[in-house]
Amino acid sequence: MVTFKNYDTGGFYDELIDENGHPRPGAQLLVDKIESLPEGDLTMRQKAAESLLLKMGITFNVYGREEGTEKIWPFDIIPRIVSRGDWQQIENGLKQRIFALNAFIGDIYNDKKILKDKIIPEELILTCRAYRKECEGFTPPRGVWCHVVGTDLVRDADGRFYVLEDNLRCPSGVSYVLENRQLLKRTFPQVFEASRVKPVDDYSARLLEMLQYMAPDHVRSPVIGVLTPGIYNSAYFEHSFLSQQIGVDLVEGRDLVVSDGFVHMLTTKGLKRVDVLYRRIDDDFIDPEVFRPDSMLGVKGLMDVYRRGRIAMANAPGTGIADDKVIYAYLPKIIKYYTGEAPILNNVPTYICQDEKDRAHVLANLDKLVVKAANESGGYGMLIGPHASKEEREAFAKKIAAEPRNYMAQPTISLSRVPTVVGDRIEGRHVDLRPFVLYGKEIYVQSGGLTRVALPKGSLVVNSSQGGGSKDTWVV
Amino acid sequence: MLSRVANSIYWMNRYIERAENVARFIRVNLNLTLDMPSENGNQWEPLVKITGDRAFFEERNLAYTKEEVVRFLTFDRDYPNSIFSCVAAARENARSIREIISSDMWEHMNNFYLELKDAGSSVFARTDPHRFFENIQMRSLLFASLLDGTMSHGEEWNFAKVGMLIERADKTTRILDVKYFMLLPRADLVNTPYDNIQWMAVLKSASALEMFRRRQYRITPQNVADFLIFDSRFPRSIRHCISNAQVCLHRITGSSSGSAHNDAEKRLGRLVADLEYIDIDEVIEGGLHEYLDGLQTRINLVDDAIGEAFFNLKPLTGTTLAEQ
Asked: Which listed residue, of A37, A299, A476, B239, carries a Cα 20 to 30 Å from B184's Cα?
């Protein structure tokens, strides 16, 4: 029988069990249920959930390997529970943050007030790889740039949430939130019902509403498409899932063509105009005439149609400027500048390698810090000081010295943990949390989000490409 | 609907139909070899011949033994028309349109593929081939039934049907052609029990034996050919497949059956008319092989024309779509 009696929180903040070994508020029902299960039952439920995922084909592709390496993303059936109080703070904090980020992007591509007021050094923006000259002087429909955002939060040993990074380009993972929820409802139906978990399913309807709201003014009932790089993309399942959920066509670049000044789909009955694209292809690849000319994924002439206001795109090109990891360090100032308020959610303290004093500190303390490249995601281009070898640290120090603009560093956070099924027992594993935010007529935060869990013992890397899995997130 | 999606759904169904046909051919042949004395010539070569891929087989220096032919037709991953390759391709197509098909269809297809991919499946095929190939057939038929039962009968469904029917018609011409060619000259077998068994096997290869019997025909080469080409009600007869494909195509374009919107409809319409107004005596007189060969060519031309009309839309900019 599984019991939490000997469960060791290991000195970390545990999301379900407090430091005295008692369930936290909201987790009591779940803990009781798990302890009441007959021998082997928890493992059986875990296996049942995994085989269901494989059967449903909920998989992702691992890059850099042979075709046919579709994998299921490991899923752990013990949910992460967030109290209503904590959630309220997260939701308010995210609304404030995303509002400010959106205002920031619009300002950068137009009036540049924040630069003129010397809140942010201008050169930092101009040297940002994600800065798009093509967006200068442009305002997207309804003034919205970052329609879909996934912001990564972590909880430190002090029990407080911190923002680790914002993802404003093509954040993925929301399909897992929706599917994980379906799975967990089957796994713990009674506990789920009794815990009065806030629903996540309204996301799809909100997404559709937002996309319709973005349509150009001349359009009554807009034709919407989800633009995917295709079935070999690691997030293909999500693209297909979302387009099915909102009932629109899933299109690839080769399905689209610019003709007579508009974007059209190639259909069995000829050309059909498209008004809104939820594109899941990075800026670099969406239009070979404007961005990377070697892109096979995009649509020739798309940017031109877009700039003329004849098609809307979510997210808008150019948003990458706001999730640059060095710009991140300025977020408290950015929030203050555009809202006049203090940030509700804190950043993790950040050292900017461009800054001479900070850089000296970073180089002297590489064994204690996490260093990240400004423009990478998915856990690539990253050094975790305490876990790296001497050689790795030295190699990284050279990179920093050569290209300081491209790096920032943060103290290692002791990520909180959640009890996780390991074989036939339960052990704590580190997690983060990615809530999803939609910016349409208003800002909407989905109640819950994706809890990613680092499955190898002691690991702090939650990315799917590096041994991460996921959990359902219950706001109770 | 998107041209790419139409293309995928068409091919998804062609591939599944193909897999089912290959499984059926193998199963019938396994049965047949039990009834036929082993010294009676090569039983397995015709199977490869039916696929039309004899050159591919021989290039690989394979022998026409039961083991090698069955393995080739079932599991060879490099051979694009093996059962495994067909199911994998069907599943790949399904994956690219899973937002279009029902989740029952997708999950069934995904499972079908995962089972076949499992290392245990080649052991299963060796130790209990009858049940194994029956399984393949049943999985394919279940897929077709899920298509009918869980998906709206709109444009997508009609493309799926056209794909299935074209493939089925093509396979029936092939089995008849190869077997007829092989069996007819064997004067030594005429009117022996083996002769009957062989022709029964031909009918079984098209799942047609019982339905043929209900028409109270005597098993003669001419009657078998007549039934498989011209019967208007049997779902695997060429005429039935072609005229139903025409119905589906007209539903897609919305044109009435007497008119034609495009080359695909024109070609299909002519083929339907020919099948209605010619009879088996005329065919035999002109040579059955020549006739079947002509049918195959015309079916291929219909397939090309469908591609031209619906899948390979050429916009002014000259973007082209990849072909399957």
From this structure: B239
